Amino acid sequence: MDQIISQMTVCFEDPFWVGISECSCRGIYEVSRIVFGAKPKEEEVYDLIIRKYRKFYYGRCLETEPAAVRRENPQRAQRAAKRQMQPNGIGTKAQQALQLLREQNKQVRKSRTKAQREAVKEKRFLLHEQKRREKHRGH
User: Fold this and answer.
1) What element of type H or E holds 4?
2) Which of 41-50, 81-90, 107-116 has the lowest mean pLDDT?
3) Neighbour-count burial of 9, counting CB atoms closer than 10 A to its CB (0-12 exposed, 13-18 middle, 19+ buried)
4) Is 66's pLDDT higher than 60?
5) CA-based, 20 to 30 A from 70: which of 49, 112, 132, 138?
6) What is the C-alpha to C-alpha distance for residues 106 and 52, in angstroms, rounded to an integer?
7) Facing residues of 12 across strands?
8) CB 17 within 8 A of CB 40
């Protein structure tokens, strides 16, 4: 049986409120960043998760080992939940995954702009050659 672990953290990154959605399934850790703008209410976050969860863009970033299934002491689980509710920012794993995703997007963007630049350069060269040939056509 596959276990899917999902978590949403809402924090303030100047000047916007940002939601970090983390998902772990079959040993693959994925993270998505959602910009809210103004401070979202709990209802807005729940509505976003329920209605638009499938539209989140998750970049596959890190391979993780599957968590061992074991029963946890209920009081320890309650303490862990309380610790997670404390405003301590984004987990380092989420930061690493987002950074890796930014780097991947940066590489894609660089290759795309380079191809566009080469196309413009080639077009200019062909236009220059065409004009040069037209000048010497009748002589």
Assistant:
1) strand 4-13
2) 81-90
3) middle
4) no
5) 49
6) 26
7) 17
8) yes
**52: closest CA among 90, 19, 29, 11?**
19
Q: CA-to-CA distance for 63 and 28, rounded, in angstroms? A: 5
Give the ranges where 1-139 is alpha helix by DSSP (H): 42-52, 74-85, 92-135
How does DSSP classify residue 101?
Answer: H
Sequence-ordered list of residues with C-beta below 8 angstroms from that of 119, at least 6 positions apart, any chain: none
Q: What are phi and psi of 52, to 5 degrees?
A: -120, 20
Burial class (CB in 10 A: 0-12, 13-18, 19+), 17: middle
Is the separation of the CB atoms in 28 and 19 below 8 Å? no
